[in-house]
Amino acid sequence: MQNHITTEWKGGMLFETNSLTGTTFHINDGSKDEKHSPVTPKALMLSSLAGCSGLDVASLIDKMKLKVDDFRVETFANLTDEHPKTYSHVRVEYHFEGSELNEEKLQRCVDLSVEKYCGVMEMFRQFAELKIETIFHHKTA
Predict the structure, then answer these.
(1) CATH number of the domain encompassing residue 78
(2) Tens of pLDDT along 74-87?
(3) Are 75 and 49 a contacting pair, CB within 8 Å?
(4) Minimal CA–CA distance to 60: which of 45, 44, 49, 71?
């Protein structure tokens, strides 16, 4: 299957990208742009990693009918010092919050995404050392 994305220069350091769903978003070099709210390419990579795996986990939570009040994925990444600067180490944290968390099944959801389903995770493995953490925040009823 081939994906086709078009990224068009809008002047200065601003680009507009169409997504596969037909929506557009903006990319720049990190300079402030109040009109477009762009993201940097490397931040977009981390968002893609978190989003890909998060979608897997959310789908599995639904299929397993698990009770979770809140779920988020946080990524932390270190860049190399030399150009081209790439991510060398990436930590992915899965945070679950709720009063009835089934830790074993939620960990299974994370493991399935990390080891089997998330293609972006597999791409990151090609160039970065990955560390995966699952954190449970138990609420008292």
Answers:
(1) 3.30.300.20
(2) 999 999 999 999 99
(3) yes
(4) 71
What whole-number distance in Å separates Cα of residue 117 and Cα of residue 56? 7
Give the chain's domain count.
2
User: What count of Cα atoms within 13 Å lies in the side-chain half-sphere of residue 100?
Assistant: 5
Is residue 20 located within the same domain as residue 84? no
Among residues 89, 84, 72, the alpha carbon closest in space to that of 125 is found at 89
Cα–chain center distance at 79:
17
Q: What is the pLDDT of residue 141?
A: 67
pLDDT at 99 over 90: yes
- Map residue 70 onto helix, strand or coil: strand
Domain that holds residue 109: 41-138
pTM: 0.91
Please choose, from the candidates 49, 56, 61, the residue with its C-alpha nearest in 3D space to the C-alpha of residue 103: 61
